[in-house]
Amino acid sequence: MNASRSLDTSKKQNLAEGEQCNGDHEDIISNLPDSILHYILSFLPTKYAVGTSILSQRWKFLWTSIHNFDFCDEHLFCTSSKSINYQKRKWFFIEFVNKVLHCNDVSKIHKFSLKCRECDPAHFPTWVASIMRREIQELSIYASEEYPYMYPHCFSTFESLRVLKIDMDISISITGSVSFPSLKVLHLTSVNFCGGLSLPEVSLRCPILEESVLDCCTCSNIKTFSIYAPTLPMLKIKGGHVYKPTNCVVKIFAERLVSLKLKHSLSYEFSLCELSSLVDVSIDIYGTSGSVHHVASILKGIHNAKNLELSAHSVETLSRPDVSAYFHTLARLTHLKVLDGLTTSGEKLIDLLCNMPYIESLCFPNGTHSFGFKEFGRFGTTPQCFLSHLKLVEIRPFRWYSDEQWFLKFLIKSTRVMHKLIIKVTTRDSFSDKLPGEMSEKQIKELQMLARNSNCVIEFS
């Protein structure tokens, strides 16, 4: 009995002590070392990191030693540009960035991110110059396209830079050779490179680059723009709205490049040099489709590719008679994937396939319904070498339209060694209306019989 009372008394005492401790509100975080607090603050947007200065004297100057900066003027987005408060807050944001960079006392900056939709980029050079001296490692800048601005070649001084991402409508003056010895990631969007009239040849050297995306970038007063990236495994290039062919040549030296994605009007000539490791290529040629010389330059550069993905626009361009002479360079190509798009002539698709005798697999991941065959030609009229190595065809989905049925029969009768044909049938339940070209059970059996006579197997899935 006494033992029970003693235990109850002990529990009450422990509970009282716990309540007393909770009442003291001990600040555990503030007792952490400065290095840990700096690390915590580095994950916050800069305006919140600076905001911690009002917590206590302990936090007042901690933000002045952080190594990561994340500035964003998003607080302006929902405010009318005609508002007085809008203009005041716009000015406050500029002053805020100026003050933070002035008061920060670190010798090295790890990350600097700047996102501005309303702030005039004319202030950017001052901010960039402020971080240039601090061995910055990652730099990311985004701004609205409303304020194009000419930049000097200031980015070339970032020897410590590992990540560079610029998304804004600007012109960067570049002369001679620019080197980024430490750069591993390069993303450029809407950047215009301007060369000097006296030196129209420029080069960009990134000896350890691992990832690169060039989106809507252009060149002015540059005849030859060379990019040296010997360690780069993947490159994406997307063109803008420049359709008229120019005299600019973009040379890419990337001996370890494995994957290339090119979506462009070919207004520039792309000279792909020393791409000995290239395996996967995706091409989407649009607009005026460039000159024959520009198209031929691409085909010569991707001669080592094994897998090729083409858009419907590219089929239109590459099937031209003046281009077909250059297809002999694609002797290693074994896998072809053709994407769906606007209505394209089925005749041009067949003309393209006639120039690819070595492919072993042919894939239509979006089906073939956008290709209008209209019973082009007659069965058996293709060259003897037509798809002579083809073994596998995938059409998914297959919608049973008359053009698709004709193309399917055409493949079965025209190929020589194909032993398997895979078709993924889209059921009628996937459509609101009945398919006008849907095959009857009798027609399906006839198709299977035709396949058996041609040493083919059709799989419906």
Task: Give a written overview of the molecule.
- With 461 residues, this protein is of the alpha/beta class.
- It has a domain at 306-461.
- It is built from eleven helices and 24 strands.
- The strands form three sheets. It has a 17-stranded parallel sheet that branches.
- Helix 6 links the parallel strand 16 (280-285) and strand 17 (307-310).
- The longest helix is centred in the first third of the chain and has 23 residues, at 2-24.
- The radius of gyration is 31 Å and the shape is elongated.
- The termini are far apart.
- It holds the Pfam family F-box.
- InterPro entries: F-box-like_dom_sf, F-box_AtFBL13-like, F-box_dom, FBD, FBL13/AtMIF1-like, LRR_dom_sf.
- This is FBD domain-containing protein.
- Residues 384-461 form the FBD domain.
Shape: elongated
> What structural category do the secondary elements indicate?
alpha/beta
- DSSP E strands, number: 24
How many alpha or pi helices?
A: 11
Estimate the mean pLDDT confidence. 81
Measured distance between first and last alpha carbons? 78 Å
> How much beta, percentage-wise?
25-35%
Helix proportion range: 25-40%
Main features:
461 residues, alpha/beta, 17-stranded parallel β-sheet, five-stranded parallel β-sheet, 11 helices, 26% helix
